[in-house]
Design brief:
Elements lengths: L9 E4 L6 E2 L2 H7 L9 E6 L5 E5 L28 E3 L11 E3 L13 H8 L1
Antiparallel strand pairs: 1-2, 1-3, 3-4, 5-6
């Protein structure tokens, strides 16, 4: 499972070391040599578990599908987003601006909130 591309549909065989990786960043993290570029690529479909080769120098729209199961493997990648984000200037100086989306905050009160207005009137 790739931690860089969450919806990877194929694994790619590296032409330099002949190992399977989901993306180039996975190869960079696990191997000590640079990734060799090649136009003739070998893919393994994650849906039907069958391998196929594609010439990427002559890539067309019909080549975006697995030839065995028609799984569309050229799709927009979903990458992980950080759970913490900074809403202020510098979090090292003032950490009050750190917001963690995993923690449910208390309900905010507002003069425009209908429920609060009904409590005050009734």
């Amino acid at each position: 499972m790739c931690k860089h591309i969450l919806n990877a549909q194929v694994a790619i065989r590296s032409p330099c070391c002949r190992k399977w990786f989901d993306c180039a960043e996975c190869h960079y993290e696990q191997e000590s040599h640079p990734l060799m570029q090649s136009f003739d690529m070998t893919f393994a479909c994650k849906k039907c578990k069958k391998c196929f080769r594609k010439d990427t120098s002559e890539f067309e729209d019909s080549d975006e599908y697995c030839p065995h199961c028609d799984n569309h493997f050229v799709i927009e990648a979903k990458t992980p987003t950080p759970a913490l984000r900074v809403e202020g200037e510098d979090a090292r100086i003032d950490s009050r601006f750190l917001k963690d989306d995993r923690v449910r905050g208390t309900a905010e009160r507002s003069i425009f909130n209908v429920r609060d207005a009904a409590d005050r009137l009734g």
